[in-house]
Amino acid sequence: MHLADVKLRSLPGNPLVFVGRYWSWFFLLLIVLFFSLTGPGFFDLFNFQSIGANMAFIMLMALGQTFVIISGGVDLSTGYVMGLSAISASLAITNLPTSTPFALLILAGIVAGLISGLIAGMISGIIIARLHVPPFIVTLGMLGIARGAAFLLSGGQPVSVQTPGVGQLGNGYLLYYVPTTGFSFFHLPADLHGARARDVVQLLPYQLIVMILLVLFCAWLLSRTRFGRHTYAVGGNAEASSRAGIPVARHIFMVYVLSALFAAGAGILYVFRFTNGAADAGDPLLLDSIAAVVIGGASLFGGEGTIIGTLIGTLIIAIIQNGLVIVAVAPFWQFIAVGTVIILAVLIDQAKERITQ
Amino acid sequence: MEVTAGSSAPAGSTDVQPILQVKEMYKRFGGLVAVDRVSFEISPGEVLGLLGDNGAGKSTLIKLISGVYRPDGGSLLLDGQEVSFSSPLDARSKGIETIYQDLALCENLDASANIFLGREVRLRRLGILRELDNAYMLKEAKEVIEQLDIQIPDLRKPIRLLSGGQRQAVAIARAVYWNARLMIMDEPTAALGVPEQLKVLQLVRTLRERHIPVILISHNMQDVFAVADRVIVMRRGRKAGERMIKETDDKEIVGLMVGTDELKQAQS
Fold first, then answer.
1. How far is Cα A338 from Cα A261, in angstroms, rounded to an integer?
2. Looking at the predicted complex, does its ipTM rise above 0.85?
3. What's the whole-model pTM score?
């Protein structure tokens, strides 16, 4: 309830307004029903876990993007900031001596990834907040800069991470269930072979857990804290916010730093998941993440949006992508489907505005 | 010609100390003297109308008082102490609240969030997490809105769904909640329908009853005659005259605004 109460608080009288507000929920339900009926193996715990793990990348970037869009801006650089962070993290891990303790290697990777994201976010943030260059332009420039920097750092090639254990971190599960022996945390029981190993039930991939924790954190940050309130205020009326004593420039700066840090988080997760860093790791995710935020009801004019909405939007995109693969449609249709839904979302948003006025 | 401060206060409070004294206020922009040595004062529980044609210097005078502009000459005394404001925020922190035409509210936020905008009340969760105390802010907002006799059906609706008069009321409630000593209202009825105008004027009377003085800038003479105790007329940057509302009529005021007095004097 804590996540939903912002949206569910008051039910409007006009049924059209109701549909306008909750269409994304209905749409999600509709596509889940559709793929459950048409796609063999779609409605399945393991498929849902795999959707959850795969959508973590879009989700992370969409979380940061939600704050940016509510504040009245947009961050086009997240895809390549993610790539830059993936490269930085993987370079940090591979360039340290192999004798370095595993925990330290991982920590170095995380720190390197976050720092590169932080630098990108701070540069964008300062230029947008202090020099008043439109966010569209600044983050488009940062997209190019991060892309170039990532390719330069990696020499144009993906950085492969061979360190043992890294892949386990990105592909492991919190819980394993062996029918004969019961639950086991973090690791498979060591002495499983052949047929018995195939019966193991793997529950809660790490990525899903990281994602859920971050979604909860962002929902809290946006709806319950002063930072969240100021994000809405700045996006609603920056002039009024400034007159009310809100440090508007500092807030806008923070929002872009937050977005870049989330993109960096996605990059680090990418390294653990795929055991390599690629400069274009996040290229297709930028549009998906912006689409998720917009489908979730955020206004590109600022001031409107919720984390639960962004979660719904991300689920819609992830399920369309997953479902279309399962029903064996040519993968390129995914782009068309997601593109259609994003335009649909904005159309519905505009119609909603007209009704409420 | 000018009325003294003592007699300008409302009946029964003749010995009240003025909250704001404006002395010989002077401001020029390049060669243009926008405000030319204007003096006046205002006491608790008083509504002062500020009238004048476009370009008469009303807005500039108000901006000098509310910290938007720095004066080139003259002085401001708040509670008898000389003050100078470095910014509108500074003026507000000293109790001078200005309600502008464009309202300075966030229309996507609700009334309570707007009243506490930039001054949100927080509580601690688990010792370290600080979050908004929405229940407290809503309660306080409800209280101040009730005190001001304002009808807002749902305080949790974004205020863009409220009427113009209700939004005006939210802006005023915010100022009252944060202990405004003096309220400056710039054309508060300009964009409103007639029933809404009446509500805003009623709100001005409520403020007077609460001993918060109001400076009311308006084009609309009916508004000023309806609620003001005293009126200052400006023309070409100067104070053309100051009258008690009870002792004047619209003809005289119009005369001061367009300068027929001077014309007559010149002719005679």
1. 25
2. no
3. 0.86
